[in-house]
Structures
1.
Amino acid sequence: MSRHIAVVSVARSDYGIYRPLLRAITADPALELSLIVAATHLTHQFGDTLSEIIADGFTPAARVDCTLASDNPASIARSMGLATMNFATAYESLKPDLLVVLGDRYEMHAAACAAVPMLIPMAHIAGGAITRGAIDDSLRHSMTKLCHLHFPETAPQGQRLLDMGEAAWRVHVAGSLALDNVKQVKLLDMASFNARFGTAIETPPILVTFHPVTRDAERTADYAKALMDALETAPEPILFTYPNADTAGHVIIDLIEAFIADHPGHAFAVPHLGTQGYFSAMALAHSMVGNSSSGMTEAASFGLPVVNIGRRQEGRLAPPNVINCGHGRDEILAALSKTRIHEFRDTAQGVVNPYGDGKTAPRIVNVLRNVDLSENILMKEMF
């Protein structure tokens, strides 16, 4: 009898990371996959990613709607409550042997909360990280205590889980699933990229991925305006992606659209690039600017210079291709100038990515297949 593994995906960001794991689970005769899709996957505003999932050959076993129209803090909290109720309904129907969750989004935290009273063992991917500028830290560390198996990306993250009181047998340092994707995805050239996404980029662009700083959301407009001001004088084309569905995300989207309207033919936006499109953009880009974890994790595999703005990723391991700076216009301009220096670009090209070797999915599947799921897995010593 196969072991029933349910995997929760709540956003484009985690689905792109999950893909090699989903394929590895599907290919293993000892495992049965149920993919639960939720939140922004089910909204058109964030790129209709459900259609991408289906096109990849995965049929969702359940759909959990929990995204509200507003993105203010109270609405986020209400979304968490709605998600908890609807995930419970999905689990009641699917009855998985093991639940896989990833990262630190509030919808993912709700998915974990719903599983606790139902006594479903949980495996958490990418715990043990630190991002001081986001509420994600609180959610991620809470999920560590809710879950029973852990797949941190790096040894320091694994040690942090041990320091939090997790038993050593529960912690398996596996690397980043995102790097499995880097090895597997066929990249688009510039002409194919433009044809796919309706852009007209002729030279390497600045790739901009900027999200709200959720511990300082009231300053989102100020931070985003400073970024736009810094990009005003950039000679390189600008390629924006949309932010996540976080508090004040709509503020950033509005400023992106205004910037594009003021810079026709020079600035472009694609709400959702998908994994192939996003990695292709990284490979084609001159540099990357923003505050996305992809700048810390995947960008090094492309030798891409990264300007990491503000505190959103503060505490996360930053490879030598990353330049950290504050939110001020002049600070961003100075960091952008460094990305144009040949010596720094040579350094970025030579970086060995510290987040793994692209063989993470087989390591995780091996544990999911063989771990003892008797009642002992649910019995955690709490510290």
2.
Amino acid sequence: MALRGITVVELGGLAPVPFCGMVLADFGAHVVRVDRPGTRSDPSGLARGKRSLVVDLKQPRGAAVLRRLCAQADVLLEPFRPGVMERLQLGPEILQKKNPRLIYGRLSGFGQSGRFSKAAGHDINYLALSGVLSRIGRSGENPYAPLNLLADFGGGGLMCTMGIIMALFERTRSGKGQVIDASMVEGTAYLSSFLWKTQKAGLWDQPRGQNMLDGGAPFYTTYRTADGGFMAVGALEPQFYELLIKGLGLKSDELPNQMSIKDWPEMKKKFADIFAKKTKAEWCQIFDGTDACVTPVLTFEEVIHHGHNKDRGSFITDTEQRVSPRPAPLLSNTPALPSTKRDPFVGEHTEQILKELGFSQKEIIQLKLDNIVEIHKLSVNL
């Protein structure tokens, strides 16, 4: 796999950092997740392919364990607000002095500097401060966040992953690691570069929800079907729009011009009435195999059974029969080989990892007795 031989230390946190660690693990990195004492499970559910070590970083001897671990690692991932790692004597100055090749990934909502840097927040707050939230929503309604995907995972976890890959590549030339300041606000804003770069192109002249790409156009939105399902329509180009009109049983010469904005509301009502007369399956029979850019809105239950996804093996099933998306993108020579084993229990690998670091059995027992580490082994009921 592409990241075979790379060791990553991930400090347990909420979803963005675990997602970043999972992507790295999926593509071959050895990821050790450092969990806090008292933690009983990984709330993110993104522990695939990782091992778990429980250590109390607030205690000096616990911090010393992490320093020892990072001395042999390629990447450290930390999810805390600025200053937390420094107070624990685990900042980049200390860790990179011991290991100059260490790539120190800092993933936070507002970044390592600025007046909001130490403030609490979540996806919707980062989305708001990036400017993107102001552009999402129906006409006449409040802006709304499209799940916690854009900032947490797109502008956060995935952008941090890209930074780590670039830093690993740069290290092949300089031999040195570097600090990655991954701000979810800035990552989300960067994702929206198209919106910024097209402001003078006329795409966003109308109020929110009334533009071509934000739900205002009748040919770029969703419609309810007779059985309560939905169809997604994205027929932007004239030749695709013509196929849409044909599939709906209409005649283009009897309709307003596709780009007549004043007629869009009435055209949306007309299209909605037509879509409501057939089921989702019936519309699929009409549009599948055409270039009308009309597709079913699949539920999680439906998506794994869809023919195209089955053709590509786009979803995988683990040993506990849990289904999830296959890692993307698909590399031709070194594709990801995600673990299909169950997720690790918190602290399941504490003893194993400490032994790999050179701790003796006596030292491990003492660390456990002193509540520096926790060991949770899998119990077998006979």
3.
Amino acid sequence: MRVGIVGVGWFGFQPEVVDYSFREMMFKAAQRAYEDAGGLDPRSEVDAFVSCQEDFWEGISIADEFAPDPVGGAMKSVYTVTGDGLQCVGQAYMMIRSGLFDVVIVESHGKPSDVETLNEVVFTATDPISLRPLGLENVHALAALEARAYMSKFGVAEEHLEAVVEKAHKAGVKNQRAVYASPGKSRSATPVVAEPLREADIAKFVDAAVVVVLASERVAKRYNDTPVWVDGVWWSTEFSSLEFHDWAFPLHAREAADGAYTQAKIADPYKEVDFAEVDNRYSFKELQHIEALRLAPRGTAKDLLADGAFCPGGRLPVNLSGGALAEGVPFEVHGLARLSYAVGVMRGEVKAEVDKAETAVVHSWRGIPTATSVVAVLRI
């Protein structure tokens, strides 16, 4: 049984959403998703709801208590996942494939603007014995170590990071959600945050909520004439202790991609995938993740990017949205942000420079200090 995306709604994607609480943002996104799904009634037509959030980001213990009401799930089956929104899609996918559910709602929201001690919150996720006592003042130092390891091993120069940043901002101009898009932005003109990373290499945060409606093949066309099918979704977590994981290559992204490709029966991603939305919350991560997703051999993403292969209109456009560098990172919503943009391109609602939009791969990483990736394969 196939699982289809029949409705998508989003709200926010602003540096600070002042006039709405996170619950109101969820409500707005849900309204739009249900309208997109042909006016679906969440009270009578939905079998279950899945919400992806994290108590630390919310600043509220047992924050999932706030999940049901804003999306119409009060007194119904509501499941919560402490992970990226794309992991929720994986949960919904399994629920529908079980045959016990026909319609499942996936929701994720984030208000980074409410968090006053972000550095401290992130460090609560690090190893309490080997890393947290270091008391690093800059959380991006962890990403900088990965960047240096990757760049040294595969001959990636700062000019290659410049190319990623330039591509992201140019592409972002055509994305209405890309509030940080700044064509002509010079990476070298921005200050160093943690060598080799400059300010332009690091995505800023953004407040947002995204809701996605998934349905089984037997009912999908009741809600949408052109469902976008989820033909594979997989996630993987590498070693939880940073000192034991591969700093130069994200094995978690490779494992997640291989699992999703196996489900979707994709043998050669570079030839079979039409475009990709990958996590680029750090510029070097776009190159890393392209290679981890087998869209380029290890160490060659920089060269293919220079040749235009991953640019809009290229052989395999990557991040037509501009990705997180242009759009921002809304905490656990990031995977759904990448997914919702890909769905828009595949439906033809987003005018993008891509030769074909029949098969897409979507990727998200939970960010520093995690080693968790999720990959989904979409077809239309």
